Amino acid sequence: MTMLVPRRPQIPDWTAYLAQRAEHAQDARLARFFEAGTPSPDTPVRDVPMVALDMETTGLDARNHAIVSIGIVPFSLGRIQLSERRYWVVRPQRTLHAESVTFHHITHTDIEQAPEFGDVLEDLLEALQGRLVVVHYRHIERLFLDDSVKARLGEGLMFPMIDTMAVEARFQRQTWLARFKRWVGRPPASIRLFDSRARYGLPAYQGHHALTDALATAELLQAQVAHHYEPEMPIGQLWT
Known about the structure:
Elements: H1 14-24, H2 28-35, E1 50-57, E2 67-75, E3 86-89, H3 98-104, H4 108-112, H5 117-128, E4 132-135, H6 138-153, E5 161-163, H7 164-172, H8 176-183, H9 193-199, H10 210-228
Parallel strand pairs: 1-4, 4-5
Antiparallel strand pairs: 1-2, 2-3
Helix pairs in contact: 1-2, 2-5, 9-10
């Protein structure tokens, strides 16, 4: 088992933050979501109910692009609850460009009769609330969700996440050996979802589908914890 104690950035007090948001949220859907809170940071990761989340978007800039699909898969360290998976295609308010279609394969025909993001927001919040959200690269999911909710409700949506890309970076890019390899000119290890899964012997899935990538992210976290951590580790050491 790899043992590593990397330097970690200052993590917000998510318990206090969510309680404060619950008290002041103007929208009832957001209030219910924040009231559900999050597990205490000292809860062992084995005891935490989680949900993997992935979104496909029209681009990478939340200010100029939009969400086109959302996939979620509830899970824990010992079980993936595929029967409770959810998947939505949503109609973006911004133009769907041809180059984005080549990635997520969602076409103008697919979105023509699809609901708008605001129409699925309540169902999405209900599926996420009370669970710790797990993503691969939080700077997409977190920013797009926050901006999309702000645009419709005038108040944002922030909550703790486990970022499997950040977890992988701790072991593939932040160790002394990884730093030495870069110093001698070797390229850094890829921490993309496909390549990260391959390191743990997980099967290769077709990427750029929100539901498949959510499942892939859930499996990746299970493998990361099994290889690098103990199930008794406090969840506060993983979330961000």
